[in-house]
Write a structure and sequence with these properties.
Two copies of one chain form a homodimer.
Chain A (H helix, E strand, L loop, with lengths): L14 E2 L9 H6 L10 H17 L6 E5 L3 H12 L5 E6 L2 H13 L2 E6 L8 H11 L3 E5 L1 E2 L4 E2 L5 H7 L3 E5 L11 H4 L3 E3 L13 E5 L1 H8 L28 H8 L11 H17 L1 H21 L15 E5 L6 H12 L1 E2 L11 E5 L7 H17 L8 H12 L9
Parallel strand pairs in A: 1-12, 3-4, 3-5, 5-8, 8-9
Antiparallel strand pairs in A: 2-10, 6-7, 9-10, 11-13
Helix pairs in contact in A: 2-10, 3-4, 10-11, 11-13, 11-14, 12-13, 13-14
Chain lengths: 418, 418
Amino acid sequence: MTGAFFGPTDPPQRLLMGPGPINVYPRVLRAMSMDMLGQFDPEMTAYMNETMALYRQVFMTDNRRTFLIDGTARAGIEAALVSLVEPGTRILIVRAGRFGLLLSEIAGRIGADIRTIDLEWGEVASLEQIEAAIKEHRPRVFACIHGDTSTTMAQPLEGVGALCRKYDVLSYVDATATLGGNPVDVDGWGIDVVSAGLQKCMGGPPGSAPITISEQAAEFIFSRRHVEQGIRVAGTQDGQGVRIGSNYFDLAMVMDYWSEKRLNHHTEATTMLYGARECARIMLEEGLETRFDRHRRAGAAVTAGLRAMGLRVFGHDAYRMANVTGVWIPDRVDGEAVRLRMREDFEIEIGTAFGPLIGKIWRIGAMGYNAMKHKVLITLGALEVVLAGQGYPMPRGEAVDAALMAWDAGAADETIRK
Amino acid sequence: MTGAFFGPTDPPQRLLMGPGPINVYPRVLRAMSMDMLGQFDPEMTAYMNETMALYRQVFMTDNRRTFLIDGTARAGIEAALVSLVEPGTRILIVRAGRFGLLLSEIAGRIGADIRTIDLEWGEVASLEQIEAAIKEHRPRVFACIHGDTSTTMAQPLEGVGALCRKYDVLSYVDATATLGGNPVDVDGWGIDVVSAGLQKCMGGPPGSAPITISEQAAEFIFSRRHVEQGIRVAGTQDGQGVRIGSNYFDLAMVMDYWSEKRLNHHTEATTMLYGARECARIMLEEGLETRFDRHRRAGAAVTAGLRAMGLRVFGHDAYRMANVTGVWIPDRVDGEAVRLRMREDFEIEIGTAFGPLIGKIWRIGAMGYNAMKHKVLITLGALEVVLAGQGYPMPRGEAVDAALMAWDAGAADETIRK
């Protein structure tokens, strides 16, 4: 035992322009400073129901089963996979970055029969590639990442749900990096299960994973309910499927907890619920289209600014997420020294990278509360200064001007996909 | 889509005197309203290290591996079990209430070979019973609940760790309900893995699960690490054991994330970390002995007050937790009508019950920020009034007087175990 108490929590005020977590909306922080309610207090269950209604709008879905998983975004991914995938279930996974690899890592632990579409980091799968793989492998479940922050790319999902239904495949998409800043059109795309987090475009803290589940996916998951005396009440279809390997991530139980049945499961993380609810309220007050446009402007401004510095942006313009931009670290520039000076002199964080891209690209985020003109301009201005200090030759001030023009051009700009 | 926005988060100010969640220390709520830091920011990793040092003191242990699981208390239980128990592992579980049943439910999903010590709800296992069961079943893992809120009883743990080591058994204890208000003497008892939550005696919100892991348990868990390209770096002992069935709850990965290696796993739930850190700071500033004494006084005062009303307290005095008291609902009194009027007229929540005790007992909590003299007296005074309104005959005011005397008697009172 050390006997140390340490001082109060008083983090420095950093401008977090990396791939997330990012600065949280002050309104969300205030909502999270409210006191507890009893778990089955009618005021508490009303907040739970309101949160469900709010996230239906955020996910653009009518799915009754739209709620929160108590854990980080990764908890949402695992809850979806462990509930949809039985040992031996054949699953087709698109792997084009770190989080696609995570999907197959989790599926492997479940004992799934894993088939993959393996792409270079930064590529996306075409609808034709997906259909060909489905025809070849005949999976029960298809899974992919919408926006993979490790590569900054967004997998196009138009038509993917219809394709999966054509071949009787359940579909899962992780939208952690995109939800709240890029359209995540769950019903339009026809995806069965989509999960996310708060710490990217939603402008909240990590620790809560919104999830939405279609009727057909819910029916399958409920078929995996098993009766256990003293623990839970049986549904009519209980026990048809293989029991879900996790209690905490058993979505049948979590759905029952969030339903009018209110069957006791975990104790809902009240503070995170308050935060998630406020994140959604802010988004819906802003309006989805205005919100997406703001993120597109931010992404276009970051891109224009970086290009005006003569830097090369990572990946295809057609598939880049609006909210995180990868940029190649120039030759003879020490990437970590730049990040260090950005943090120490300017209190601005930009991101490093993972896997094959480590040391090769930086990742600059502009999302949620930080997808704002002044924050983009401040970041680009600081980066220009720091790069110049590293001997990287460029005219000063042009990046900021270019970014400002791109921001103002808004929807007319073509460098970020719509 | 409903199109509804709903109002700001503004919960009514309830006095939560049930089994938890309870009212959170205002200092904790303020700590949780601080903004984010980057995940690998040195300020963030310093907070993580400080939180580890603080929880070593809270758990009374020198265990290097003492950290937080991002999820509710149930997440801590599942992380411990899925990491300690392989499919086919023989586990001995004490079941004397709802949460003992939960342990076996989770172990069942893992595919464990489950052996049990089954007791009536409200009983505890003696050391002799545990030793006899260990000798009979020769388990690899022993698991029990310290304080089961469903029964308000605390399982005595003195000597249990030594017993387990004698028979080469790894031990796990869930201390969700007791940590922060009753001694949880991890090293003194010699328990290998102990997990908890914040929403009981720690005076925090649900959503973070402190956990501590002994060297021998950590060594076993690390032996279950498997290498996966692009996902994690291998340790020297990787791959000896059966791979852990969960990624999110893979304690080998979570330990690596919290170690100086900082191997990326989930994104730490920053807000919950701030909250957990402040809960521990408050406890250590108060001092462990003062803290435990305050909870004993609160429990003795609740007990004395209930008895002065002529009510019968549930369970053996020798084994009751200090922080939650069960009380039999008197004949001809409508238990739910009492709870409703307590909430609606007094804004005070007292708890209902589970399983065989549902409708038979109420549970009254006095813990963390609510283990205070005035809150106990207010609750008892209100309960007297409400019971009188239900036609329950008793002299008025005696409960409060009796509670006050018990509070002031403090350590001299014998109705709550020390």
